[in-house]
Amino acid sequence: MNNSKLLLKRPLNRASTASVVAILVIAILGFADSAFLTIEHYRGVVPPCTTAGCDIVLTSVFSAIWGMPVALLGAVYYLLIALGAFIFLEAKHIGKAAESHHFSILKWTLLATILGLLMSLWFTYVQIFILGSYCLYCLGSALTSVLLFVFALNILIKNENI
Questions:
Q1: CATH for 16-158?
Q2: 87-104, pLDDT tens digit by residue?
């Protein structure tokens, strides 16, 4: 618990450009996947899939929250992660990376990957243990969430925040 409090209080003071670029690219891939599923949802179409479970997963009660497709929430999440990484990289590119608010934006972007990881773990659990069916698009999204979390954790650890 003390580590969590320290993580929120300590400023982020460095991040490698390569790691942040990786986060940006992965977030864009996650956005493309989620946006595609969102579009297909509103078209009323189950996208082609090599597994027989996509239709079960994408039309289950777990595919929407309060009438909103989960894929839309994922698209917003990935877009926010990409935006946070982009703002940091752009500020670094124009020589303003030392300004604390840009590092603050990156820090909150990195911390947001925890939420993405938890949601992906939940939906993967639903696919495996509740529905007994798999959606490759959903598993791809889960993989991107895990990768985002791993890169974020790497940056945070290198900052000795944990």
A1: 1.20.1440.130
A2: 998 887 676 545 666 788
